[in-house]
Amino acid sequence: MEILVFGAGSMGSFFGGLLSVRHDVTLIGRKDHMDAVRTHGLRITGKTVRLVRPRTATRIPTRASPDLVIVATKSYETAAAVQSLRAFARTAVFLTLQNGLDNADILARTATRVVAGTTAHGVMYLGPGEIRHAGLGDTTIGAWNEVGEDAVVRLRDILDEAGIRTRITADIRSELWAKLVVNAAINPLGALAAVPNGRLVQDPDLRRLLYDVARETASVARAAGALVDVDDLVRRARLVARRTAANRASMLQDLDRGHRTEIDAITGAVLREAERVGMQAPVNRVLFALMKAREAALLQPR
Question: In the chain, what are the domains?
Answer without folding.
Answer: 2-170 (3.40.50.720), 173-299 (1.10.1040.10)
